[in-house]
Amino acid sequence: MAPPTKSGPRYDNFIQVPKVRVIDDEGENLGVMFTREAMEQANDKGLNLVEVSPNADPPVCKFLDVGKYRFEAQKKANAARKTQKTQDIKEVKMRPNIDTHDYDVKMRNVNKFINNGDKVKVTLRFRGREMAHQHLGMDLLKRVQEDVEETAKVEAFPRLEGRQMLMVLAPK
């Protein structure tokens, strides 16, 4: 017997079970038959016997053109990969004594990122004596949380790491 194929479904001589359930090229169920007999019928039609459901008992095989079957499977996988959306983490940096206009600009960016389906990490950096007024930072992050309440949920609540306070927002 030949060794099993590295990729894709098993076909023809790579199918090692004695009996298989066979479906012909029109989709008709031919029932359970010996693998050798099914291969001969497939070869008569100029097709291969391809294992489509190897975990069934007995395995289900179909009369197909292996090359065409692999090509279609690859096209489906590529289409699925194209439609897949990866989620990035965007970062918005602020300071505890941020001005209202600057805050509005930052919030516009936060909303834009969330509407694009990305997560947003809001970083609040403290300098020097600002560390003594951490309550101002916490108030600012609560304000951010309230401003994006309709579009985003808080994934990681505000926490202090060294001289910066972090909060992660994710789209709802």
From TrEMBL:
Task: Establish whether keyword Electron transport is in the entry.
Answer: no
Q: Which residues form the Translation initiation factor 3 N-terminal domain?
A: 13-79
Write one Gene Ontology MF term.
ribosome binding
Translation initiation factor 3 C-terminal domain residues: 88-172
Q: Where in the cell is it found?
A: Cytoplasm
Provide a GO CC annotation, any one: membrane
Keywords, A to Z, come to: Cytoplasm, Initiation factor, Protein biosynthesis
Q: What is its main location?
A: cytoplasm
Per the UniProt entry, what is one GO biological process? Answer: ribosome disassembly
InterPro entries noted in UniProt? T_IF-3_C_sf, T_IF-3_N_sf, Translation_initiation_fac_3, Translation_initiation_fac_3_C, Translation_initiation_fac_3_N
SUPFAM superfamilies for the chain:
Translation initiation factor IF3, C-terminal domain (SSF55200), Translation initiation factor IF3, N-terminal domain (SSF54364)
The cross-references to NCBIfam families, in alphabetical order and at most eight, read:
infC (TIGR00168)
The similarity annotation says: Belongs to the IF-3 family.
**What does the UniProt record say this protein does?**
IF-3 binds to the 30S ribosomal subunit and shifts the equilibrium between 70S ribosomes and their 50S and 30S subunits in favor of the free subunits, thus enhancing the availability of 30S subunits on which protein synthesis initiation begins.
User: Could you describe the subunit structure of this protein?
Assistant: Monomer.
HAMAP family to which the protein is assigned, alphabetical: IF_3 (MF_00080)
Name assigned to this protein: Translation initiation factor IF-3
Annotated organism of origin: Erythrobacter longus
